[in-house]
Design goal:
about 190 residues, alpha+beta, 7 helices, globular
Length: about 190
């Protein structure tokens, strides 16, 4: 078993608008965050960072590979910005998905062929390389190299380099990693 993480990122320059959308998500759509409808008194805690001039990163305890996509899809209905979700599992899989207005716009799964063979359901919902290239703002000459990567570790590292922010983050790591403690603010909704 290796390291796993899941996070989401909003392509936005407006932190206040993003926080408002996350508040609406927490209050009106809390079931996608693993919160039962009847648990209104329980606060939702999110960790938010304006990672750079183009991206706002969000961490939450319920984000894992398999749940973060539904959160990204729901959030994309509430905010007029692209939402990118990243799910990384045990150094064997890195799933990158983009949503706008509640629809998946593009997806790429980085893994070795044996993983795809072993898990037959492991297929991208929507392959749209042009959308990925534009949303990630990757030059044409660099995009082909990036998209052909099969190693999840290398894909995360290369994407982190392209978007100029580290994707290596998870809410569980915050108490243990000083750099994440400094980077992410705690928000309760």
């Amino acid at each position: 078993m290796g390291r796993s993480f899941a996070n989401l990122h909003i392509k936005s320059k407006n932190l206040e608008k993003t926080v408002d959308a996350l508040k609406e998500l927490s209050e009106g759509h809390a079931t996608v965050l693993g919160k039962p409808n009847e648990a209104q008194e329980i606060k939702v805690v999110m960790y938010i960072s304006k990672s750079n001039e183009n991206w706002i990163s969000v961490l939450h305890d319920y984000f894992v590979w398999g749940t973060v996509k539904e959160v990204g899809k729901t959030l994309s209905r509430l905010i007029e910005e692209p939402v990118m979700t990243a799910g990384y599992m045990n150094e064997e899989l890195f799933e990158l998905s983009f949503f706008e207005n509640g629809d998946i716009r593009a997806e790429k799964i980085f893994c070795e062929q044996w993983m795809r063979d072993e898990y037959e359901h492991l297929k991208e919902e929507r392959i749209n390389d042009d959308y990925l290239r534009i949303a990630l703002d990757i030059r044409n000459e660099d995009f082909d190299d990036f998209i052909s990567i099969t190693s999840p570790v290398q894909a995360v590292d290369k994407l982190s380099e392209h978007v100029k922010m580290s994707l290596w983050s998870d809410s569980e790591w915050i108490p243990h990693e000083e750099s994440l403690k400094k980077q992410f603010g705690t928000y309760e909704f």
